[in-house]
Backbone:
């Protein structure tokens, strides 16, 4: 039976958790109230335009970054290609370079193809995701041992067949993890859009926080927060399964 002291401790823990939850929720409630008041002002049309820009940019760049990073991780982990180790080291080095250091070189590249100050140019410049590629490399290294790859080769699978028939089915949790982190990185991206976009009508929500400077920023905060929370709730189980999958292997 549960003793009286254990019941009291359980009650204290529950009360403490509720108190912490209430304290953490207070800023969000204030932000929600301010957003409702801001949305009634004349800035709501501008904010909705920035929201549309952010959605278009994030979804398009997300599709490219997730597909390219997972494919690159599979190639580096499974396929025997020239300069494989060099590619792995370069991916790791690129992942460690701060985003601010990459902004100006990417600006020069985008300007050379005459896509500066366009959403398309921002999508192209933001589609590379070295962290996702390196994470995929680590995942496929443990999820697809050489024996499994050899069995696939015996069954007549080529490089593309290995990816679609073995790699994709074994990496469902990886897709969720890379998608989530890539989305957060793109949705909250500020430095690169700040460098590549000049016209206010091309701005994204993070840039809008600076442009409005107080008036309407609560609405932007809510619009930036809701998609991230919704995506996490939708992919929570896959993310947790992918994070802890390595811990349960003998």
Residues:
């Amino acid at each position: 039976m549960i003793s009286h002291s254990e019941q009291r401790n359980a009650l204290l823990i529950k009360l403490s958790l509720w108190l912490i939850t209430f304290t953490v929720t207070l800023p969000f409630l204030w932000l929600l109230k301010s957003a409702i008041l801001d949305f009634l002002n004349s800035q709501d049309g501008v904010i909705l335009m920035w929201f549309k820009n952010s959605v278009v940019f994030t979804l398009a760049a997300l599709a490219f970054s997730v597909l390219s990073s997972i494919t690159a991780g599979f190639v580096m982990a499974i396929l025997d290609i020239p300069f494989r180790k060099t590619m792995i080291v370069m991916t790791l080095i690129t992942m460690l370079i701060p985003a601010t250091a990459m902004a100006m070189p990417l600006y020069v590249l985008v300007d050379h193809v005459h896509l500066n100050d366009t959403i398309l140019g921002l999508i192209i410049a933001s589609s590379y995701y070295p962290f996702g590629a390196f994470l995929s490399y680590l995942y496929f290294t443990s999820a697809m041992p050489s024996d499994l790859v050899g069995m696939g080769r015996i069954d007549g699978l080529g490089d593309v067949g290995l990816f679609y028939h073995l790699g994709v089915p074994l990496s469902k949790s990886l897709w969720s993890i890379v998608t989530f982190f890539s989305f957060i990185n793109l949705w909250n991206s500020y430095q690169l859009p700040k460098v590549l976009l000049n016209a206010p009508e091309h701005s994204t929500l993070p840039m809008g926080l600076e442009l409005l400077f107080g008036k309407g920023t609560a609405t932007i905060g809510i619009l930036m927060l809701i998609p991230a929370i919704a995506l996490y709730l939708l992919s929570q189980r896959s993310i947790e399964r992918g994070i802890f999958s390595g811990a349960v292997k003998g």
About this structure: The two ends are 36 Å apart (CA to CA). The chain has one domain: 30-245. Residues 246-250 have pLDDT under 50 and may be disordered. The CA atoms of residues 82 and 154 lie 23 Å apart.
